[in-house]
Amino acid sequence: MTQSIFKIAVLPGDGIGPEVVTPCLEVLNAAGAKTGGFALECQDLPAGAHEYLRSGNALPGTTLDGCRAADAILLGAMGWPEVRYPDGTEIAPQLDLRTELGLFAGIRPARLIPGISPVLADPRAEALDFVIIRESIEGLFALRDEGKVVDDREARDTMVITREVCEPLFDFSFDYTRKRKARGGKGILTCVDKANVFASMAFFRKLFDERHALNSDIEVNHAYVDATALNLVRRPWDFDVMVTENMFGDILSDLAAALVGGMGFAPSADIGKDHAVFQPCHGSAPDIAGKGMANPTATFLSGAMMLEWLGDKHNNQAAIKAGQLVRNAVDAAFKNGIRPYEVGGKDGTAAITAAVLAALETAEAAAA
């Protein structure tokens, strides 16, 4: 079998970032050894709040160059509450990466892992499995470095919605929903907006409807963001895939993470035409950094998404199968009783990693 070499830019970042990235690479390599057909060539690159303190640059040019040259980017966590730019905002080079690399589609899956008790007291919550696709480079974040404070009496930020970004975002969302339907999803894409109030959101919906005309095989719904927040608590099992503006997606994806156990269970990907970043949704968690308490599950699942994306992009079935093996091993570890601190357990990073590696060891490698 010919082996593909995938170059991975690794940005461990701050706080628990390095603590979850290191075992994630161990898990991904173990899954790759099961399937064969590919190998990961990793390069650690500096970025984040502590890099800003060291060099004055949270995302050095050499790091950005390394990300551009990589086949994929794996990121741990960025930021530290006490480290801020002169305007008071936190260090967030992950947002710069999205803009620099044109990563317009933020994928935020919300799936309840077997063995984790659902937050909602309804048997249907045990099978929660939906996805939020967050537009990731414009919306209310588009001019985040250009907000204005006028005479210390008012502040202004600007919402930007463009056809240039929304058309590929919606095409990606329809294709994602189509592929998900082939794997058992509902095949329903919901456009979440506030089109009843804002012209920018009415335009967002208009562009969505235009792209739906070219993807009429997919069933669609429209929903306002406030009603969506309500229904994610009342009836989250009704949703399949949602696509929404940047800030709305930021908020709704955190709500979704709460439904499946917390941020330690929430993976993500930010995908563009040529590049992609994979990272857990959680932050650098200064309160538990260095204590061995971090839950690496979201990072493992983000790594699984990375392998599947690489496999799909490069037609490498071994990488796709390895991603599936990682997800299956995570499920098996939790079915067997592993429990991180955030859900009342006493299993830290090392114990969770060992349980997932043990599940991988006994798993049958799918044929590549």
From TrEMBL:
Catalytic activity from the UniProt record: (2R,3S)-3-isopropylmalate + NAD(+) = 4-methyl-2-oxopentanoate + CO2 + NADH
PROSITE patterns annotated for this entry? IDH_IMDH
Q: Which cofactor does it need?
A: Mg(2+); Mn(2+)
**E.C. designation(s):** 1.1.1.85
Question: Signal peptide position in this chain?
Answer: none
Q: What pathway does the annotation place this protein in? A: Amino-acid biosynthesis; L-leucine biosynthesis; L-leucine from 3-methyl-2-oxobutanoate: step 3/4
Which UniProt keywords are listed?
Amino-acid biosynthesis, Branched-chain amino acid biosynthesis, Leucine biosynthesis, Magnesium, Metal-binding, NAD, Oxidoreductase
**Per its UniProt record, what SUPFAM superfamilies does this chain match?**
Isocitrate/Isopropylmalate dehydrogenase-like
Q: Any keyword Metal-binding? A: yes
Chain ranges of the Isopropylmalate dehydrogenase-like domain: 7-356
The source's superkingdom equals Bacteria
Report if keyword Secreted is assigned: no
Q: Which Pfam families match?
A: Iso_dh
Q: Which family does it belong to?
A: Belongs to the isocitrate and isopropylmalate dehydrogenases family. LeuB type 1 subfamily.
Question: Subunit structure of this entry?
Answer: Homodimer.
Q: What is this protein called?
A: 3-isopropylmalate dehydrogenase
Source organism per UniProt? Devosia yakushimensis
